[in-house]
Amino acid sequence: KGRIDLWGMLLLALAFGSLQVVLDTGQKYDWFSSGFIRFFSYMCVFSMLAMLLRELTTEHPIVDLRALKDRTFAAGVFLITVVGFVLYGTLVLLPIYLQTLLGYPALQSGLAMSPRGVGSLVGTPFVGALTSRVDPRKILIFGLLLGGASTYQLSALNLNAGYWDIFWPQVLQGVSLSCLFIPLAATAISHIPKQKMGNATALFNLMRNIGGSLGIALMTTLIARRSQFHQNRLIEHIQPGDLKVQTFLHQSQLWFQSRGSDAYTASRQAVGALYGMVQRQAAMMSFVDAFFLVSVLFWAVIPFVFLLSNPRKRANEVVEKRSVPPTAQPRREAEPEPELLHV
Protein backbone atom coordinates (compact mmCIF):
# COMPACT_ATOMS: atom_id res chain seq x y z
CA LYS A 1 0.00 0.00 0.00
CA GLY A 2 1.08 3.55 -0.55
CA ARG A 3 2.32 5.65 -3.45
CA ILE A 4 4.50 4.27 -6.24
CA ASP A 5 8.05 5.56 -6.10
CA LEU A 6 8.23 6.88 -9.68
CA TRP A 7 11.49 8.78 -9.12
CA GLY A 8 13.10 5.67 -7.69
CA MET A 9 11.86 3.64 -10.65
CA LEU A 10 13.28 6.20 -13.11
CA LEU A 11 16.67 6.35 -11.38
CA LEU A 12 16.78 2.56 -11.16
CA ALA A 13 16.16 2.23 -14.90
CA LEU A 14 18.80 4.87 -15.72
CA ALA A 15 21.41 3.34 -13.40
CA PHE A 16 21.15 -0.25 -14.53
CA GLY A 17 20.34 0.62 -18.13
CA SER A 18 23.53 2.67 -18.36
CA LEU A 19 25.47 -0.07 -16.63
CA GLN A 20 24.19 -2.61 -19.16
CA VAL A 21 25.24 -0.38 -22.08
CA VAL A 22 28.74 -0.01 -20.60
CA LEU A 23 29.13 -3.73 -19.97
CA ASP A 24 27.81 -4.81 -23.38
CA THR A 25 29.73 -2.34 -25.54
CA GLY A 26 32.79 -1.54 -23.40
CA GLN A 27 35.15 -3.98 -25.10
CA LYS A 28 33.92 -2.92 -28.55
CA TYR A 29 34.76 0.76 -27.93
CA ASP A 30 37.93 0.13 -25.87
CA TRP A 31 36.24 1.03 -22.61
CA PHE A 32 37.03 4.43 -21.09
CA SER A 33 39.06 5.68 -24.02
CA SER A 34 35.69 6.19 -25.72
CA GLY A 35 33.55 9.25 -24.98
CA PHE A 36 30.44 7.10 -25.51
CA ILE A 37 31.43 4.74 -22.71
CA ARG A 38 32.48 7.58 -20.41
CA PHE A 39 29.11 9.31 -20.88
CA PHE A 40 27.11 6.26 -19.87
CA SER A 41 29.55 5.53 -17.03
CA TYR A 42 28.97 9.00 -15.57
CA MET A 43 25.23 8.56 -16.00
CA CYS A 44 25.38 5.18 -14.25
CA VAL A 45 27.33 6.54 -11.26
CA PHE A 46 25.15 9.64 -10.92
CA SER A 47 21.90 7.68 -11.22
CA MET A 48 23.13 5.03 -8.79
CA LEU A 49 24.05 7.57 -6.12
CA ALA A 50 20.79 9.46 -6.61
CA MET A 51 18.83 6.20 -6.41
CA LEU A 52 20.57 5.18 -3.17
CA LEU A 53 19.81 8.56 -1.61
CA ARG A 54 16.20 8.40 -2.79
CA GLU A 55 15.54 4.85 -1.66
CA LEU A 56 17.00 5.45 1.80
CA THR A 57 14.90 8.56 2.45
CA THR A 58 11.52 7.93 0.82
CA GLU A 59 8.66 6.36 2.76
CA HIS A 60 7.70 3.80 0.08
CA PRO A 61 10.88 2.89 -1.87
CA ILE A 62 10.69 0.88 -5.10
CA VAL A 63 13.66 -1.12 -3.73
CA ASP A 64 13.93 -1.22 0.04
CA LEU A 65 17.67 -1.19 0.66
CA ARG A 66 17.13 -1.26 4.42
CA ALA A 67 16.91 -5.04 4.16
CA LEU A 68 20.69 -5.03 3.70
CA LYS A 69 21.07 -4.05 7.35
CA ASP A 70 20.57 -7.72 8.14
CA ARG A 71 24.01 -9.36 8.05
CA THR A 72 22.74 -12.70 6.77
CA PHE A 73 20.78 -11.14 3.92
CA ALA A 74 23.66 -8.82 2.95
CA ALA A 75 26.11 -11.75 2.87
CA GLY A 76 23.61 -13.79 0.86
CA VAL A 77 23.21 -10.98 -1.69
CA PHE A 78 26.97 -10.73 -2.07
CA LEU A 79 27.33 -14.48 -2.52
CA ILE A 80 24.53 -14.71 -5.11
CA THR A 81 26.21 -11.88 -7.05
CA VAL A 82 29.44 -13.88 -7.20
CA VAL A 83 27.53 -17.06 -8.09
CA GLY A 84 25.83 -15.20 -10.95
CA PHE A 85 29.23 -13.93 -12.05
CA VAL A 86 30.81 -17.38 -12.27
CA LEU A 87 27.66 -19.04 -13.64
CA TYR A 88 27.16 -16.75 -16.62
CA GLY A 89 30.89 -16.21 -17.04
CA THR A 90 31.59 -19.89 -17.62
CA LEU A 91 28.35 -20.24 -19.56
CA VAL A 92 29.64 -17.78 -22.17
CA LEU A 93 33.25 -19.03 -22.15
CA LEU A 94 32.68 -22.66 -23.06
CA PRO A 95 30.70 -22.16 -26.31
CA ILE A 96 33.29 -19.66 -27.54
CA TYR A 97 36.08 -22.11 -26.73
CA LEU A 98 34.29 -25.02 -28.39
CA GLN A 99 33.35 -23.17 -31.59
CA THR A 100 36.41 -20.96 -32.18
CA LEU A 101 39.23 -23.26 -31.04
CA LEU A 102 37.92 -26.82 -31.32
CA GLY A 103 35.77 -26.17 -34.39
CA TYR A 104 32.48 -27.46 -32.97
CA PRO A 105 29.37 -26.47 -34.97
CA ALA A 106 26.54 -24.75 -33.08
CA LEU A 107 24.51 -27.92 -32.54
CA GLN A 108 27.47 -29.94 -31.23
CA SER A 109 28.49 -27.03 -29.02
CA GLY A 110 25.00 -26.93 -27.51
CA LEU A 111 25.04 -30.69 -26.89
CA ALA A 112 28.45 -30.39 -25.25
CA MET A 113 26.95 -27.83 -22.84
CA SER A 114 24.08 -30.11 -21.78
CA PRO A 115 25.94 -32.05 -19.03
CA ARG A 116 25.71 -29.00 -16.78
CA GLY A 117 21.92 -29.26 -16.90
CA VAL A 118 22.12 -32.99 -16.24
CA GLY A 119 24.21 -32.35 -13.12
CA SER A 120 21.73 -29.77 -11.84
CA LEU A 121 18.79 -32.07 -12.61
CA VAL A 122 20.33 -34.91 -10.62
CA GLY A 123 21.61 -32.78 -7.75
CA THR A 124 18.62 -30.51 -7.09
CA PRO A 125 16.24 -33.10 -5.53
CA PHE A 126 18.94 -34.36 -3.16
CA VAL A 127 19.96 -30.85 -2.16
CA GLY A 128 16.34 -29.88 -1.57
CA ALA A 129 15.92 -32.83 0.77
CA LEU A 130 19.21 -32.20 2.58
CA THR A 131 18.55 -28.48 3.15
CA SER A 132 15.86 -29.25 5.72
CA ARG A 133 18.06 -31.77 7.57
CA VAL A 134 21.63 -30.42 7.34
CA ASP A 135 23.05 -26.99 8.07
CA PRO A 136 22.72 -25.21 4.66
CA ARG A 137 26.08 -23.53 5.18
CA LYS A 138 27.81 -26.91 4.93
CA ILE A 139 26.06 -27.53 1.61
CA LEU A 140 27.15 -24.08 0.40
CA ILE A 141 30.78 -24.75 1.28
CA PHE A 142 30.64 -28.11 -0.48
CA GLY A 143 29.10 -26.45 -3.55
CA LEU A 144 31.79 -23.76 -3.67
CA LEU A 145 34.57 -26.32 -3.31
CA LEU A 146 33.04 -28.50 -6.01
CA GLY A 147 32.49 -25.53 -8.35
CA GLY A 148 36.08 -24.42 -7.94
CA ALA A 149 37.32 -27.95 -8.61
CA SER A 150 35.23 -28.21 -11.80
CA THR A 151 36.51 -24.93 -13.27
CA TYR A 152 40.05 -25.83 -12.20
CA GLN A 153 39.70 -28.98 -14.31
CA LEU A 154 38.57 -26.80 -17.23
CA SER A 155 41.71 -24.68 -16.80
CA ALA A 156 43.75 -27.76 -17.72
CA LEU A 157 42.20 -28.03 -21.22
CA ASN A 158 44.23 -27.70 -24.39
CA LEU A 159 43.65 -27.71 -28.15
CA ASN A 160 43.56 -31.53 -28.17
CA ALA A 161 40.72 -31.80 -25.63
CA GLY A 162 37.92 -34.24 -26.40
CA TYR A 163 34.25 -34.40 -25.48
CA TRP A 164 34.78 -36.32 -22.23
CA ASP A 165 37.36 -33.79 -21.07
CA ILE A 166 34.52 -31.26 -21.03
CA PHE A 167 31.71 -33.60 -19.96
CA TRP A 168 32.71 -34.46 -16.39
CA PRO A 169 33.75 -30.96 -15.25
CA GLN A 170 30.36 -29.68 -16.42
CA VAL A 171 28.49 -32.43 -14.56
CA LEU A 172 30.36 -31.44 -11.40
CA GLN A 173 29.60 -27.79 -12.04
CA GLY A 174 25.89 -28.55 -12.44
CA VAL A 175 25.87 -30.38 -9.11
CA SER A 176 27.76 -27.51 -7.48
CA LEU A 177 25.23 -24.95 -8.74
CA SER A 178 22.36 -27.01 -7.33
CA CYS A 179 24.24 -26.96 -4.00
CA LEU A 180 24.42 -23.16 -4.16
CA PHE A 181 21.09 -21.77 -5.34
CA ILE A 182 18.65 -23.58 -3.04
CA PRO A 183 20.56 -23.31 0.28
CA LEU A 184 21.68 -19.76 -0.44
CA ALA A 185 18.17 -18.53 -1.18
CA ALA A 186 16.76 -20.30 1.88
CA THR A 187 19.47 -18.96 4.17
CA ALA A 188 19.59 -15.38 2.89
CA ILE A 189 15.89 -14.65 3.43
CA SER A 190 15.50 -16.64 6.66
CA HIS A 191 15.57 -13.45 8.79
CA ILE A 192 13.33 -11.36 6.53
CA PRO A 193 9.78 -10.69 7.81
CA LYS A 194 6.97 -12.00 5.63
CA GLN A 195 5.68 -8.52 4.75
CA LYS A 196 9.14 -7.64 3.32
CA MET A 197 9.76 -10.97 1.60
CA GLY A 198 8.76 -9.74 -1.88
CA ASN A 199 11.20 -6.83 -1.81
CA ALA A 200 14.01 -9.01 -0.47
CA THR A 201 13.62 -11.69 -3.15
CA ALA A 202 13.45 -9.01 -5.85
CA LEU A 203 16.72 -7.48 -4.65
CA PHE A 204 18.25 -10.95 -4.36
CA ASN A 205 17.38 -11.85 -7.97
CA LEU A 206 18.40 -8.41 -9.24
CA MET A 207 21.92 -8.79 -7.88
CA ARG A 208 22.19 -12.28 -9.35
CA ASN A 209 21.42 -10.83 -12.79
CA ILE A 210 23.83 -7.94 -12.25
CA GLY A 211 26.51 -10.43 -11.30
CA GLY A 212 25.78 -12.35 -14.50
CA SER A 213 26.12 -9.21 -16.61
CA LEU A 214 29.42 -8.40 -14.95
CA GLY A 215 30.61 -11.97 -15.51
CA ILE A 216 29.83 -11.94 -19.22
CA ALA A 217 31.41 -8.53 -19.79
CA LEU A 218 34.55 -9.14 -17.75
CA MET A 219 35.15 -12.65 -19.06
CA THR A 220 34.94 -11.56 -22.72
CA THR A 221 37.21 -8.62 -21.96
CA LEU A 222 39.65 -10.89 -20.13
CA ILE A 223 39.76 -13.28 -23.09
CA ALA A 224 40.53 -10.45 -25.52
CA ARG A 225 43.18 -8.80 -23.35
CA ARG A 226 44.93 -11.98 -22.19
CA SER A 227 44.93 -13.37 -25.73
CA GLN A 228 46.81 -10.28 -26.91
CA PHE A 229 49.19 -10.56 -23.96
CA HIS A 230 50.02 -14.21 -24.62
CA GLN A 231 50.36 -13.55 -28.35
CA ASN A 232 53.01 -10.90 -27.69
CA ARG A 233 54.86 -13.25 -25.35
CA LEU A 234 54.80 -16.14 -27.82
CA ILE A 235 55.99 -14.00 -30.71
CA GLU A 236 59.07 -13.09 -28.67
CA HIS A 237 60.20 -16.72 -28.96
CA ILE A 238 59.75 -16.89 -32.75
CA GLN A 239 62.98 -15.65 -34.32
CA PRO A 240 63.57 -15.74 -38.10
CA GLY A 241 66.96 -17.40 -37.64
CA ASP A 242 65.68 -20.14 -35.35
CA LEU A 243 66.17 -23.61 -36.83
CA LYS A 244 62.74 -24.91 -35.74
CA VAL A 245 61.00 -21.86 -37.22
CA GLN A 246 62.85 -22.24 -40.51
CA THR A 247 62.03 -25.97 -40.64
CA PHE A 248 58.34 -25.33 -40.02
CA LEU A 249 58.16 -22.58 -42.66
CA HIS A 250 59.99 -24.71 -45.22
CA GLN A 251 57.77 -27.76 -44.68
CA SER A 252 54.63 -25.61 -44.75
CA GLN A 253 55.75 -23.93 -47.98
CA LEU A 254 56.31 -27.33 -49.62
CA TRP A 255 52.88 -28.47 -48.48
CA PHE A 256 51.14 -25.41 -49.94
CA GLN A 257 53.10 -25.81 -53.18
CA SER A 258 51.89 -29.40 -53.40
CA ARG A 259 48.37 -27.97 -53.23
CA GLY A 260 48.95 -25.80 -56.32
CA SER A 261 50.33 -22.54 -54.90
CA ASP A 262 53.39 -20.89 -56.47
CA ALA A 263 56.57 -20.41 -54.42
CA TYR A 264 55.84 -16.78 -53.43
CA THR A 265 52.22 -17.44 -52.44
CA ALA A 266 53.22 -20.63 -50.60
CA SER A 267 55.81 -18.75 -48.54
CA ARG A 268 53.22 -16.16 -47.48
CA GLN A 269 50.73 -18.91 -46.66
CA ALA A 270 53.39 -20.64 -44.52
CA VAL A 271 53.92 -17.44 -42.52
CA GLY A 272 50.15 -17.10 -42.17
CA ALA A 273 49.89 -20.68 -40.91
CA LEU A 274 52.57 -19.99 -38.31
CA TYR A 275 50.77 -16.84 -37.16
CA GLY A 276 47.49 -18.78 -36.99
CA MET A 277 49.12 -21.33 -34.70
CA VAL A 278 50.36 -18.55 -32.45
CA GLN A 279 46.88 -17.00 -32.30
CA ARG A 280 45.22 -20.31 -31.41
CA GLN A 281 47.74 -21.06 -28.69
CA ALA A 282 47.41 -17.54 -27.27
CA ALA A 283 43.61 -17.82 -27.26
CA MET A 284 43.84 -21.21 -25.54
CA MET A 285 46.07 -19.76 -22.84
CA SER A 286 43.62 -16.90 -22.29
CA PHE A 287 40.79 -19.40 -21.71
CA VAL A 288 43.01 -21.23 -19.23
CA ASP A 289 43.53 -17.94 -17.36
CA ALA A 290 39.78 -17.23 -17.34
CA PHE A 291 38.81 -20.66 -16.01
CA PHE A 292 41.53 -20.47 -13.37
CA LEU A 293 40.25 -17.04 -12.26
CA VAL A 294 36.72 -18.43 -11.90
CA SER A 295 37.99 -21.32 -9.77
CA VAL A 296 39.81 -18.85 -7.51
CA LEU A 297 36.58 -16.82 -7.14
CA PHE A 298 34.70 -19.96 -6.11
CA TRP A 299 37.19 -20.66 -3.35
CA ALA A 300 37.80 -17.04 -2.31
CA VAL A 301 34.19 -16.42 -1.20
CA ILE A 302 34.04 -19.45 1.13
CA PRO A 303 34.85 -17.31 4.24
CA PHE A 304 31.74 -15.20 3.56
CA VAL A 305 29.57 -18.27 4.13
CA PHE A 306 30.37 -18.01 7.85
CA LEU A 307 28.62 -14.62 7.93
CA LEU A 308 25.35 -16.44 7.28
CA SER A 309 23.29 -17.67 10.19
CA ASN A 310 21.86 -21.16 10.41
CA PRO A 311 18.17 -20.97 9.36
CA ARG A 312 17.45 -24.36 10.96
CA LYS A 313 18.60 -23.03 14.34
CA ARG A 314 16.39 -19.97 13.96
CA ALA A 315 13.43 -22.11 12.92
CA ASN A 316 13.90 -24.31 16.00
CA GLU A 317 13.96 -21.23 18.24
CA VAL A 318 10.69 -20.01 16.73
CA VAL A 319 9.09 -23.42 17.23
CA GLU A 320 10.26 -23.55 20.84
CA LYS A 321 8.81 -20.11 21.54
CA ARG A 322 5.47 -21.13 20.08
CA SER A 323 5.42 -24.42 21.98
CA VAL A 324 5.97 -22.84 25.43
CA PRO A 325 2.54 -22.45 27.14
CA PRO A 326 1.60 -19.04 28.49
CA THR A 327 2.58 -18.44 32.06
CA ALA A 328 -0.09 -19.93 34.22
CA GLN A 329 -1.65 -17.64 36.75
CA PRO A 330 -1.18 -18.74 40.38
CA ARG A 331 -4.09 -20.75 41.67
CA ARG A 332 -5.99 -19.24 44.50
CA GLU A 333 -6.22 -21.42 47.56
CA ALA A 334 -9.67 -22.66 48.26
CA GLU A 335 -11.27 -20.96 51.21
CA PRO A 336 -12.13 -23.31 54.02
CA GLU A 337 -15.80 -24.15 54.26
CA PRO A 338 -17.44 -22.71 57.32
CA GLU A 339 -18.19 -25.26 60.02
CA LEU A 340 -21.82 -25.99 60.54
CA LEU A 341 -23.17 -25.05 63.89
CA HIS A 342 -24.92 -27.91 65.59
CA VAL A 343 -27.50 -27.09 68.08
Low-confidence stretches: none
Large-scale geometry: globular
Count of individual helical segments: 10
Binned, the helix content reads over 70%
Q: Report the portion of residues in β strands.
A: under 5%
Oligomer state equals single chain
Characterise the protein shown here.
73% of the residues lie in helices and 0% in strands. The protein has helices at residues 6-25, 35-57, 71-100, 106-131, 136-154, 163-188, 197-235, 243-258, 263-300, 311-323. The protein is globular and about 80 Å long. The mean pLDDT is 81.
Task: Based on the model shown, name its key terms.
343 residues; mainly alpha; 73% helix; 0% strand
Short description:
By secondary structure, this protein is mainly alpha-helical.
Record the SSE blueprint.
Layout: H1 6-25, H2 35-57, H3 71-100, H4 106-131, H5 136-154, H6 163-188, H7 197-235, H8 243-258, H9 263-300, H10 311-323
Helix pairs in contact: 1-2, 1-7, 3-4, 3-6, 3-7, 3-9, 4-6, 5-6, 5-9, 7-9, 8-9
